[in-house]
């Protein structure tokens, strides 16, 4: 069963990789785990740059505190960001 779930997840991310919309995924703690090429192009970073909390370095300094607060609220409430 686990093998089938991993295959399905791999297929889903193969499709997501082709989308023009920037998409990222995080774990339950709000740490970035992956992103599609459109997201990486938008923020001009590599996946290695943004994993974990590295994504915050892509934010404009004027917006960083507000977005950080909104992000962590979304993670704590398990809601869409």
Molecular structure report:
A hairpin with a 5-residue loop joins strand 1 and strand 2. 49% of the residues lie in helices and 9% in strands. A two-stranded antiparallel ribbon has the order 1-2. It is mainly alpha-helical. The model has no long low-confidence stretch (mean pLDDT 93).
Cα distance spanning the termini: 30 Å
Large-scale geometry: globular
Low-confidence segments, given as residue ranges, are none
Global mean pLDDT: 93
**What string, H for helix and E for strand, traces the elements in order?**
HEEHHH
- Rg over CA atoms, rounded to whole Å, is 14 Å
Q: Helix proportion of residues, in percent? A: 40-55%
How many strands appear in the DSSP assignment?
2
* Portion in beta strands: 5-15%
Brief summary of the model shown:
About 50% of the residues lie in helices and about 10% in strands.
Structural descriptors:
two-stranded antiparallel ribbon; 4 helices; 81 residues; mainly alpha
Secondary structure topology:
Layout: H1 2-16, E1 24-26, E2 32-35, H2 37-43, H3 47-50, H4 64-77
Antiparallel strand pairs: 1-2
């Amino acid at each position: 069963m686990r093998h089938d779930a991993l295959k399905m997840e791999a297929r889903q991310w193969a499709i997501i990789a082709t989308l023009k919309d920037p998409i990222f995924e995080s774990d339950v703690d709000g740490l970035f785990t992956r992103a599609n090429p459109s997201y990486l192009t938008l923020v001009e970073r590599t996946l290695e740059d943004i994993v974990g909390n590295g994504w915050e370095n892509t934010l404009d300094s004027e917006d960083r505190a507000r977005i950080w607060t909104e992000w962590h609220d979304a993670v704590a409430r398990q809601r869409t960001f």
